[in-house]
Inverse folding.
């Protein structure tokens, strides 16, 4: 006889997850039933909880959409087309460069020239930039132009004369655009509060002199009593005959 008590059959499935104080908690009975006893004890218990596990159709569809058939069942060949490799065309085809050859490159809309000269002692060649710096390789010269970045010298430089049409060292001059007329800001505007103003008059405010005044009628005045034009902060207008406040 087993010293352990017989498992108690369950007539209903365990409680699912529940939210308490914004934290996910699992009841102790549910944890014991699922982790310790599991489905084995449920299968041995007649009349117990032995219901098949069902998956939410939404979850099933999401999993199926993430599955990709990489091989064909017919011939076992991958259905995914191989990636096409694009080989970059080398600007310099003949790599036996002689002394006096001029290499050119365009970087950030600026043209650079590199001249091949004999190295000191007559052994090998060096690559001289326009600023006079001498480099042992084309890549070192290209790295100097690019501010220290690593570069493939055969891809960066090209032979002078093999440049595509339109690549000239003459800088492009942008067409002069006509200057837009600057729209002046009005300095006199109607005050939102028209309280205390006699009928037939309108209260206005001038931002040049920071004073308000009352004008007859509803027409926009072109000058304030201090002489400021509506679009000119200077005293270029004739002093008006408007009634100033204060």
């Amino acid at each position: 006889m087993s010293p352990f008590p017989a498992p108690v059959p369950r007539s209903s499935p365990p409680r699912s997850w529940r939210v308490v104080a914004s934290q996910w908690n699992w009841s102790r009975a549910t944890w014991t039933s699922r982790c310790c006893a599991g489905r084995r004890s449920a299968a041995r218990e007649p009349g117990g909880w032995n219901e098949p596990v069902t998956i939410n159709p939404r979850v099933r569809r999401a999993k199926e959409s993430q599955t990709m058939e990489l091989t064909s069942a017919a011939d076992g060949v991958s259905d995914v087309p191989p990636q096409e490799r694009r080989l970059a065309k080398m600007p310099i085809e003949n790599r036996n460069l002689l002394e006096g050859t001029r290499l050119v490159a365009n970087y950030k809309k600026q043209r650079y020239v590199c001249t091949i000269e004999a190295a000191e002692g007559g052994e090998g060649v060096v690559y001289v930039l326009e600023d006079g710096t001498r480099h042992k390789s084309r890549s070192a010269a290209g790295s100097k132009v690019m501010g220290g970045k690593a570069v493939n010298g055969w891809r960066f430089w090209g032979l002078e004369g093999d440049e595509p049409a339109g690549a000239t060292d003459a800088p492009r001059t942008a067409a002069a655009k006509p200057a837009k007329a600057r729209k002046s800001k009005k300095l006199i505007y109607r005050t939102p509060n028209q309280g205390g103003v006699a009928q037939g008059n309108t209260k206005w405010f001038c931002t040049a002199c920071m004073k308000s005044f009352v004008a007859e009628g509803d027409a926009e005045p072109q000058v304030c009593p201090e002489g400021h034009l509506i679009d000119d902060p200077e005293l270029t207008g004739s002093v008006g005959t408007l009634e100033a406040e204060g």
Q: What stands out?
A: The longest strand covers residues 110-118. The two ends are 110 Å apart (CA to CA). The helical segments are 28-44, 57-66, 138-145, 153-156. The CA atoms of residues 16 and 160 lie 76 Å apart.
